[in-house]
Amino acid sequence: MEMTIDKFSFAFDRVFKYCSAVIISLAFCVPAISATATATATAKITSNMTVRTVTSMFFGELSSSAEAGTLALSPAGVRTTTGGVTVNSTVAGTPAAFDVQGDPNATYSVSFPAAVIMTNGSPNTMVIEKFISSPEATGVLDTSGQQTLFVGGTLNVDSNQAFGTYTGDLTITVDYN
Predict the structure, then answer these.
(1) Residue 28, domain member (yes or no)
(2) What is the pTM of this model?
């Protein structure tokens, strides 16, 4: 039996020495160097943008002929014609004007429909397209959060366009950039 105790003692001694060596080596291990960083989380609550019509678009008085044409109205109110369209110079045209409001100094975008169909109360129509604004596609609100937006467009006039007063609704959209 003495032989068995010696084997056990020898095995126990080896395990004890091995575990002691592992524990001592772990005590001298250098911990990993860590680093931290902090980021600031931010959220900005903006006021709702508003837009209201100040002045409706008015192309003025015009006449057509046997030749179709166009009447372009700039955001500054300048009218130019092509084809058989004639402008009555005594009645001026006016661009649409919109009051845009939102956060001070904010930039915004403006979008237009592809076209507006105008009717004279009967099946006769004219189409406005190629809308242009001042400021152009992007506006900047002033320090009080306001800006006036002027809008013009191109009116397509058919040959021998039927007479009458034509109307249609121009809807614009503004949004923060």
Answers:
(1) no
(2) 0.75
Query: Does 132 fall in a domain?
Result: yes
* 45: in domain: no
The three-state DSSP-derived secondary structure of 143-174 is CCCEEEEEEEEEEEECCCCCCCCCECCCCCEE
The enclosing H or E element of 134 equals strand 125-134
What are the residues whose beta carbons fall under 8 Å from the beta carbon of 160, sequence distance 6 or more?
64, 65, 66
Domain count, the chain: 1
CATH number, domain containing residue 103: 2.60.40
Q: Which residues contact 150 (CB under 8 A, 6 or more apart)?
A: 75, 76, 95, 96, 97, 133, 134
- The answer to the question of residue 93 being in a domain is yes
SS3 51: strand
Is there a contact between 80 and 72 (Cβ–Cβ < 8 Å)? yes
Domain that holds residue 142: 50-176
Whether 46 contacts 176, CB under 8 Å: yes
Residue 64, φ and ψ in degrees, nearest 5: -110, 175
CA distance 87 to 81: 8
pLDDT in tens, 1-56: 455 556 556 556 666 666 666 566 555 655 668 899 999 999 988 889 999 999 99
Rounded distance, CA 131 to CA 111, Å? 9
